[in-house]
Amino acid sequence: MHSRSLQLSLAISVVAITSACAHKVPVTQTKPSATEPTRQEPATTPPSRPAPVIARVETSKPVPAAPVVTEKTLESYLNQLLDAYFDYNQSDLRNDAVSNLNRNSEALRAMLSQFPSTKFVVDGNCDERGSAEYNLVLGDRRAHAAEEFLVQVGVPAERLTTISYGKERPSCNEHNEECWQKNRRAHLSLAR
């Protein structure tokens, strides 16, 4: 009998402890700073009046300075542009030239939005064969073909000018077809 009453007492104690634990609210204590006096308030005593509302004044964060636009930055964009290549004695745009000019048009529009006063030159170039006069005319036709294409795909015409260098500015100086092909091109550069 004694063990039965002990078991009953133990069961009542467990129920009482369990139900009491469920209603306890944890209290976190913080250390007061050295300048604040220590106060002790009972955890169950409600405040006699509402706590004052302290308005926060938001201070504006400093605005970071705009990046300095330099010619070197623009030049790094220009280095990503591709030349449009032409067949011998031709100024018609080939499929690979159209692809390169399409890619360039996207880059040019992005550059113009970032550098709104920038202008570009489309220069026409030829290989070493033919007279200087003939190659100047052919280079002009190549530059205009590339310029007209760029304008048709959305590059503002007032941002583009053309020039022909004929055979005066080769990118390759060897005397073979592979090198001549590199020289038959329309090239984009920054207007100075």
List keywords for this structure.
alpha+beta; 5 helices; 4-stranded mixed sheet; 60s Ribosomal Protein L30, Chain: A; elongated; 192 residues
Question: Radius of gyration, rounded?
Answer: 40 Å
Q: Largest beta sheet: what is the strand line-up?
A: 1-4-2-3
The CATH topology annotation of the domain at 71-190 reads as 60s Ribosomal Protein L30, Chain: A
Proportion of beta-strand residues: 5-15%
Main sheet: strands, sense, barrel: 4 strands, mixed
CATH top level of the domain at 71-190 is Alpha Beta
Helical content class: 40-55%
What is the gist of this entry?
This protein has 192 residues and is α+β, with helices and mostly antiparallel strands. The protein is 41% helix and 11% strand.
Descriptive overview:
The chain has 192 residues and is an alpha+beta fold. It has a domain at 71-190: 60s Ribosomal Protein L30, Chain: A, CATH 3.30.1330.60. The protein is built from five helices and four strands. It has a four-stranded mixed beta sheet, sandwiched between helices. The longest helix has 22 residues, at 2-23.
List strands and helices in order, with pairings.
Layout: H1 2-23, H2 71-78, E1 84-85, H3 95-114, E2 120-125, H4 132-152, E3 160-166, H5 177-183, E4 185-190
Parallel strand pairs: 2-3
Antiparallel strand pairs: 1-4, 2-4
